[in-house]
Amino acid sequence: MENNQSPARVACIQMDVAQSDAAVNLETAHRLIGQACDNGATLLVLPEQFNIGIMMKSRENAYRAAEPIPGKTADFLVEIAQQRKVYIVASQVEQEGYDLYNTAILAGPDGLLGKYRKLHPCGDEAYWFEGGNLGIPVFHTPIGRIAMLICLDAYYPETFRICALQNADIVCVPSNWSDVSASRNLPAPYRTMAPTVCMSGALCNHLFVAATNRVGRVDGVIFPGQSVIANQWGAPIGSAGDAEEIIYADVDLCDSRRRYFHPTNSRLANRRTDVYSYSLGYDPKQYPQTK
Fold first, then answer.
1. What is the set of active-site residues?
2. Could you tell me if residue 267 is inside a domain?
3. What is the Cα 285 distance to its own chain's centre?
4. FRET partner for 223 with CA separation of 20 to 30 A, picked from 13, 47, 78, 241?
5. Number of domains in the chain
6. Strand order from edge to edge, sheet including 144-148
């Protein structure tokens, strides 16, 4: 098996996404992925719908942006992952039959490892995307156990907890967080609360979290970047500004499994399952991808 070294080098590729221009976006992604690989990255996370953008405006536009998996975009990522012997997480619009999903894939040296469909459509997504139906799979790789969420999924604490209960080491979160600093009266330097939510998910579940946002502006909507890599204590060990850039963190993913740090202070070991359900009602057996 490839890339079983420890620590892994995690890279969040914070890129500007050209709306509805897959050719430009794939070219940009190819350049930035190559740069990250040249700098030793072994696990790379791209923004949500990095290939086409999220401002669909209509079901017709969403269908135009959709592809099957495998398909052009997934094959593009798989080819690079196999050539560079790395793992890549990225999101795209997936079509299956007449249904559309916001889907993250995990590509690696051995090909397409699997996919995750966004559970919680955000805003207008609810009008043309279905809610995910693959559960929350965790994929076992030589560098660690990798789970995926997409953007708004991170605002639901149950998602991180389900990842942790399945022994995930790291949760990768492709995102399109918009700048809400004015409407929410956020103090500087906050332009979105999403990085804080991701750090909280890491802290509460003893997980690494790599969350990648995009930058740029589309139809007056500003995407502020602020991607983050958080360690199992919730601390940001890599963070970005509002420009196109790549952030890195060297982490031993096995550290996330050393969760029982203190007999009175483990968020997992000391849960009151006499008061609430151990599994939150989640049954991984109903989802065939879950390992």
1. 48, 118, 151
2. no
3. 23
4. 78
5. 1
6. 138-141, 144-148, 170-174, 208-212, 228-230, 236-239
